[in-house]
Amino acid sequence: MSLSNLSVSGRLIALRGIVWRETLRFLRQRERFLSALVRPLVWLFIFAAGFRALLGLSITPPYQTYIHYEVYVVPGLVAMIQLFNGMQSSLSMVYDRETGAMRTLLVSPHPRWFLLTSKLLAGVGVSILQAYAFLAIAWVWGIRPPPMGFVAVLPALFASGMMLGAIGLVLASTIRQMENFAGVMNFLIFPMFFASSALYPLWRLRESSVLLHDIAAFNPFTHAVELIRFALYGQVNALSLAVVLGCLALFLGAAIYAFDPNKGMMGRKRR
Amino acid sequence: MTAALQIEGLSHRFGPLRALDDVSLTVGQGRFTALLGVNGAGKTTLFSLITRLYDSRSGRIVICGHDLRRTPGQALAEIGVVFQSRAMDLDLTVAQNLAYHGALHGMGRKQLTARIAAVIAQVGLQDKLQARVATLSGGQSRRAEIARALMHEPKLLLLDEASVGLDIQARSDVLALVRALVAEAGVGVLWATHLLDEIAPEDDTVILHRGRVLAAGTAREIASTRTLSEVFLDMTATPETAP
């Protein structure tokens, strides 16, 4: 292969190849798309409808008036899609490692940071499609943010999807077998989701438990939710943006370290 | 002529286990080099270090003149590798896997189409191009793996126990295919095996045992007045060869 293939155009072609493969895999797994949609829709149609009468929400930014619980919960459910998609990407990497497909990627002439970032971008693209599909259904259900919100939310979805995907990459570097993934579900995904502002505002949590409120306030997932929530209403939550970008840098850096053949898990363990 | 692969003083540990100890070997361009060793000799570890799945702590690996530690991208671009187990995506077709591999090596669409046609003809799998990899037989799967490894026209081909699990005919076909690549395309081949009948007398041969090189030369030179099998069994049974 000529050295020019390692140039910018060579990298772009490789990135396109990685995205293309993820898309092909996604299209082959229609049930993955459906389950990614069904999960938040169950929460929206059943859980949120049930809690509507129980939970009154005072005026809280970015909302400028009293809102129904369904309206409040939609950004959290969008972030939930991205959380599960990030973990799905992690599962997919563990699967690739078990079946051997990951070696094709790792022995290619690109640095690990590039390969991991490309995998991340491919996964985020898929999660954004799922998020918009959910928002479209929510629109039909009557939850209608301002139309400009659908445009403004795109960079927020990108940033939060990247951060949650990066957490998935760190997990993929530590999970050695597919069987261990159930543990991740119980000990990471559910606590991250429930100890956040996805289902209830932070001030509500503080009324019940200050400790739980503090945990939720430190939870990066809370900030992904709030970033999406504010963006849907055409606003920027600066704190959440900073936390999401900071966590993205932290977790992506950790993933690159973990996959570095010289430093991280790859260098220490027999595969 | 620059060697396809040159390894000098390579050592590697997994915790307390010394997997490779001061390994040196050379694979010439257009040469078939057999890496002979029993299971656990360190062959797969050596392949993992050459392909930079993980880095070596000491020693030097040079691929077609490119130092793997200093210029990993250039070095890896020259390698095609067939691992002991499958490395293709089972859910995708052979054509999709080849296109994916080509893209990873920076090949554009036109180049991909031409190259896929060439390598698939080379391994004789034209009728399986649109088949999912999961549906291929063991022999077909190996051929597809070789086609994948050849996509970017590597100068060094690494095959780790590539004939394991194949029936006699498939094993013979795969070996013949690789030997043809050496003779016709001038590819340097490192063929890791524990099967002595895959090694011809004129092949460069390296005997690896418990992470150490016990002998290197052509199979004929190593065997001398005895058979390669006798020499190999003697060497690998000697207690003092243990590290």
Report on the architecture of this protein.
- The complex is a heterodimer of chains A (271) and B (243).
- Chain A contains twelve helices and no strands.
- The longest helix of chain A is centred in the first third of the chain and has 31 residues, at 69-99.
- Residues 264-271 of chain A have low confidence and may be disordered.
- Helices cover 76% and strands 0% of the residues of chain A.
- Chain B is α/β, with parallel strands linked by helices and 243 residues long.
- Chain B folds into three domains: 1-27 and 49-78, no CATH class; 80-155 and 170-189, Rossmann fold (3-Layer(aba) Sandwich), CATH 3.40.50; 193-243, no CATH class.
- In chain B, the strands form two sheets. In chain B, strands 6-7-8-3-9-10 form a six-stranded mixed β-sheet, with helices on both faces. A four-stranded antiparallel β-sheet of chain B has the order 2-1-4-5.
- In chain B, a hairpin with a 2-residue loop joins β4 and β5.
Major sheet of chain B: 6 strands, mixed
- Mean of residue pLDDT values of chain A: 84
CATH topology of the largest domain in chain B: Rossmann fold
Main pleated sheet of chain A: none
Give the integer mean of the pLDDT values of chain B. Answer: 90
What is the terminal-to-terminal distance of chain A? 28 Å
Our count of helices of chain B gives 8
- CATH C-level category of the largest domain in chain B: Alpha Beta
Global shape of chain B? globular
Bin the strand percentage of chain B.
25-35%
User: What is the general shape of chain A?
Assistant: globular
* Total of DSSP H or I helical runs spanning 4+ residues of chain A: 12
The portion of residues forming beta strands of chain A comes to: under 5%
